[in-house]
Amino acid sequence: MPINIFISSRMEGVEKEKRKLAKEAIKEMGDAFKPILFEDEPPDSKHTRDWWRDKIKNENTKFMILILNDTLSAAVFDEFRTAVENGVKTFVFLIDGSYVSDEKLKIVNYPVIPQDELDWFYRTVKSKKCKYKKIKGDDEFKEDIKRAISQYLAVSPEVPQELRTYILSKDEPELKRILEVYVKPKGYEKAYSILDKRSFLVITGDANIGKTSMAQHLANCIRTKHNLARIIKIEGGRKDIGLFKNLKNSAIIFDDAFGRSAFSDLGDYSNNIDDIEKLIENNNNFVIITTRKQILDEVKKRPTRFTEYLSHIEDRIIEFSQEGSYSDDALRKIFKKHVSYYRETGKISDKEETIAQENREKIINNLRFPHNIDILVKEELKKVTEGLKELDEAIEAAKHIKTIAKNWFLNLEFNKKYFIFTVALFPGFDEKTFDMVYEKLIELLQRRHRGLITEDLNAIRRYTSAYITETGRIDFRHPNYREGVIEGISKECKKDLVEIIPALGKLAIDPDTDFDVKWRVAYILGKIGKIKPEKALPLLKELAKDEPFAIRRRVAIALGMIAEAKPDETLLILTGLAKDDDGGVRMIVAYALGKIGKIKSEKTLPLLKELAKDNFPLVRWSVADALGEIGEIKPEEVLPLLKELAKDENPRVREAAETSLWKIKV
Questions:
Q1: pTM for this one?
Q2: Is 90 exceeded by the pLDDT of residue 181?
Q3: In what helix (H) or strand (E) does residue 201 lie, and over which residues does it extend?
Q4: Is 227 exposed, middle or buried (0-12, 13-18, 19+ CB in 10 A)?
Q5: Domain 173-320 belongs to what topology?
Q6: Rounded distance, CA 70 to CA 77, Å?
């Protein structure tokens, strides 16, 4: 059922015209909303005494739009009072604001409204219970209605403060663009059917084929069909699953749920897959997960709850391939929609449109995915008209955006380069948190780079807006941009990574440091540890004592990355974590011990033997996998333990043990 929005006002003069505009605004919001007006009701219902009370008290009536000029009738007063008493959110729009502010509305019709009730009316209209606003132009009035309703639905009390910045409003520019230009690929209808009927969907495939765009388009369709209150899109960082527990009537997108460019990069939910699926139980929620195919394949090999849960959700995974997703006709339609959209929004000129149209076939023969076409039309055609590139070069650039991003980063001016350096290491943070990290890193890098300073965030975001988001959380506009920059950092800035370790240390031990920042620090230390393990390990040792357990899990993963470079020092920290209260930490410890065991089996095997008795099946599973790594080098030392695990009560543990036995040819 749609959400009812009751429109209340006098039905004469200018108010009558505003009622029509309010009705139009609600109609433009889609089928999820229904305007309720006296003049639209069947004749019989109008003869019912106080008919409006039943309409306002209806459980589907969530909002009232009250339009006032210079008069107030008893009927309008009664409608307003009924709405307030029944918890219907009311937005008041004033044609002439002075009559309410000066409390001089003329009372018309009978019965007369008593003064004490009239006083209540003015107090309530001016209070926080209602939002009132003066009507300016007709178009602005309609937009104000849409905005008021959309914002209220999005920020209702059930949505925690930490999630509100992730709400994808209907006015979000990127969502509006997708809805304008989207063309459904092969397999879209199957994906929609799974989501519609089973409320849970995993979209996988290669980079740049449009997984995120599909997720947003699907979420918007589901929002309309099921009258959902909001879309929440989580990207650029892992959020505590507990924050979602009270959400209702929501479409929730976990974008790049297992990592953006590699497994367990920023934002890994592989050990929360069952918790995520529970979000759809009895709450009218719908969940969409996106992940790159190569990352999903890596997750399937890991001893995580996702792997254990895989058989339960396997029929809700949809994979899109690089070939065959779009026919030539579909690509022509995509091309036409992108050119029209950017021309109508003033992003491309007549000249750029002409070049595009004249070379349509050449473009779609070379660019086979919407993202590449979008890059060409939005960014590269202008360079052709300015004489900076030939069309063939522009098409090639649209194909290889990662390389372009890398070269862009390497050629940036000094201060701007180190702003991007910081974004690459700490993507997806709000401005306040990012600014704190940015200042600490630049302060240390000034030792190596004289004259290096922090830039004004607003100015630098505008300057780098082709690659970096200009508003909201500071992040790259596409994961491939970040990957290109990371390649540039690896090529030119390895010493800078080592230089910032003390700043990372301060962030790691500061009790006021945000959880997401600490989580990210642990990840970076694992990467830097490959270059300078002796500097990263002391900080990881400190973080290994941290709460909550998610930080310790991230530390265990980082130690696994460093293990082979400094096995003895890493083993000391892992020994402590092997006794951790969290089974997920112990599971990852077993995985890391497998890496060290190749060169220090005499020290790791006693620990693995203890972990093989763990009550948590995933820990034993991880042990069986780790023993397979060691057994390829020293089979005689692991065979007895593997044969015991092959008899384990848990089928997944037995399967892992048998696989390891096969690897060492037993």
A1: 0.56
A2: yes
A3: strand 200-205
A4: middle
A5: Rossmann fold (3.40.50)
A6: 13
